[in-house]
Structures are given as C-alpha cells and as structure tokens.
Amino acid sequence: MHNTAHRDPPTLIGPVSVLTQRQLPLLAMQAACGFPSPAEDFFREEDRLDLNEKLIVNPPATFLVQADCGGSMVDYGIHDGDLLIVDRSITARPGHTVVVLWEGGFTVKKLYCRDGRIVLASSAGYPPIIVPEDVELDIWGVVRSNVHFHV
User: Fold this and answer.
1) Is residue 89 a contact partner of residue 5, using CB atoms and an 8 Å limit?
2) What is the pTM of this model?
3) Which residue has the higher pLDDT, 63 or 6?
4) pLDDT > 90: what percent of the chain?
5) Does domain 2-18+59-147 have CATH number 3.40.718.10?
6) Most CB atoms within 10 A, among 7, 21, 78, 86?
7) Given 17, 54, 89, 109, which residue is catalytic?
8) Angle formed at CA 131 by CA 143 and CA 146, multiple of 5 degrees
9) Do residues 119 and 128 make contact, with C-beta atoms less than 8 angstroms apart?
C-alpha cells in the first residue's frame, strides 16, 4: 500500500485548509430513539458544538468529497450524495474505508487483505477489486466520517 500524503488532494469539493468556526446549539441530552424522555431545559448557553472540531481532526490533511458510488457502499453506511470527510494523515489499514485512485478515477472502497493481496470491497452484490501484485495502490486518504443528508 502506498499513501501519497505529499500530493494535493482532489478538489471535487475542495481541501479543508481554512475552517470557519460556527458553533451550533447542542441538545443538552441524548435523543431517545424509542420513547422520548421529558426535559426541563432543551438548550443551554454552554451547550454549543463546533462541527469542525468534532469531524475534522487534522485540517491541513483533510479534504471533502461527495459520494457517488451507485449504491456500492451502502452496506458500509455510505450513500450516494453523502459528504465524506477524508483524512490523508491516517495510515490506511485493513478495515478502513479509503479513497483510492483506480484506473484513472477516484473510488471509495473498504480496504482488506486476503491471501497476501489487497482487496477493495464493496457492498454485497458488487464484486471486490483484487489489486494485482504488480500494481502500487494509490491511497488518497481514509474516510473518517460521512454526513448523510435526509432532505
């Protein structure tokens, strides 16, 4: 595996180099997914959250990209249109979701090793990519998280 941390990331949406700080209200309690629990104060002034701090660990090494995977990553929680937060400073390991340059385009896959070979896995029903032994895999970064839009 080859991690090219010194090259510029793709700019499909753009590199994250200068972040604006915008704090949003954070509900002072967890939201139950079953029956709601009663609450006295929903928002307190000290309960503020900056999503940049929560989602982006290393801003100079982070870029954003919109997922266009045709459903091939749904089993791994990535849907078409999701915003992927990709960190180039993380050394890719088996089990990580990675952005790789493959056959002239960028693709998002789950990284595994099987029988000494690198495998790029997709959801059930999609064939995995078994990287030939003589091919150096160009990993552009590890997907730290994704934002799924519901509306």
Assistant:
1) yes
2) 0.74
3) 63
4) 47
5) no
6) 86
7) 109
8) 15
9) yes
Q: Which amino acid is at 34?
A: G
Strand spans (E) along the chain:
2-3, 14-16, 23-25, 48-50, 62-66, 83-87, 97-102, 105-114, 117-121, 129-130, 138-147
What does each C-alpha distance from 132 to 42, 102, 120, 124, 140 come to in angstroms?
55, 12, 11, 22, 18
65, amino acid identity? V
Q: Is 110 an annotated catalytic residue?
A: no
The ranges assigned to domains in the chain are 2-18+59-147, 20-55
Amino acid in the structure at residue 150: H
Confidence at residue 34, expressed as pLDDT on a 0 to 100 scale: 63
pLDDT above 60 (res 16):
no
DSSP assignment letter at 128 = P
**Which is catalytic among the residues 54, 72, 123, 145?**
72
Length of the chain: 151
**Is there a contact between 106 and 10 (Cβ–Cβ < 8 Å)?**
yes
